[in-house]
Design brief:
By secondary structure, the protein is an alpha/beta fold. Helices cover about 40% and strands about 15% of the residues. Strands 3-2-1-9 form a 4-stranded parallel β-sheet. A 3-stranded parallel β-sheet has the order 6-7-8. Strands 4-5 form a two-stranded parallel ribbon.
Length: about 210
């Protein structure tokens, strides 16, 4: 069984790539998670963008113990609590407010609050947080932006997400302040709809080798 992260920074140790998964049908959650784990990616971020998301988290938590399932796109305190109740083992938000940061901390789960600017990162540092999500990565300056932050904010590590591909991921992973990258390319709708779990595993293996 994969060890749960104890802090936001520990999320980075799960694998170089964090699959960012949108689940439209909860029936696909378990085979999808098993396919990703088989490919070497135990950390799975299920985004709270669909009505099926919380059930998907529940199913993965119950039936795929070797997976470390988390909830992404957490934007309200209520979602943070609901995700924790569903069995999420970490939380990820696209941005962060004071109320949301407090709510995620109150769950007791490790979490990656989202930032897109230097000031946002500094605000979270003042709260004692040094592990963050950088979103939307490509639209907010990409790897060049994160490289420029390694000087003034060397204590911060990021999981950049948004627009990253298997081709651009190595540019991010080469940076000293990047712990892992979030990738939505690992679970393309065509493979999921077709139930091509072997195809998902192949993509996961490719990403795990980065």
């Amino acid at each position: 069984m994969t060890t749960s992260p104890r802090s936001g920074a520990d999320i980075f140790d799960l694998a170089p790539v964090m699959p960012v998964v949108v689940v439209s049908d909860a029936e696909t959650a378990v085979p999808l998670a098993r396919a990703l784990v088989a490919g070497g990616l135990p950390g799975i971020e299920v985004t709270l963008r669909t009505p099926a998301a919380l059930e998907a988290i529940e199913r993965i938590a119950a039936e795929v113990p070797e997976a470390v399932v988390g909830a992404g796109t957490v934007v309200t305190p209520q979602q943070a609590r609901a995700a924790a109740d569903a069995g999420a083992r970490f939380l990820v938000s696209p941005g962060c407010t004071a109320a949301l940061a407090s709510a995620m901390a109150d769950t007791g789960l490790p979490f990656l609050p989202g930032v897109a600017t230097v000031s946002e990162a500094m605000d979270l540092l003042e709260r004692g947080l040094s592990a963050m999500k950088f979103f939307p990565a490509e639209a907010s300056g990409g790897a060049a932006f994160l490289k420029s932050l390694s000087g003034p904010l060397p204590q911060v590590r990021f999981c950049p997400t948004g627009g990253i591909t298997v081709g651009s991921a190595p540019d991010y992973l080469a940076l000293p302040n990047v712990g892992c990258v979030g990738g939505s390319w690992l679970t393309p709708a065509g493979l999921v709809t077709a139930g091509d779990w072997d195809g998902v595993t192949r993509l996961a293996k490719e990403a795990a080798a980065l």
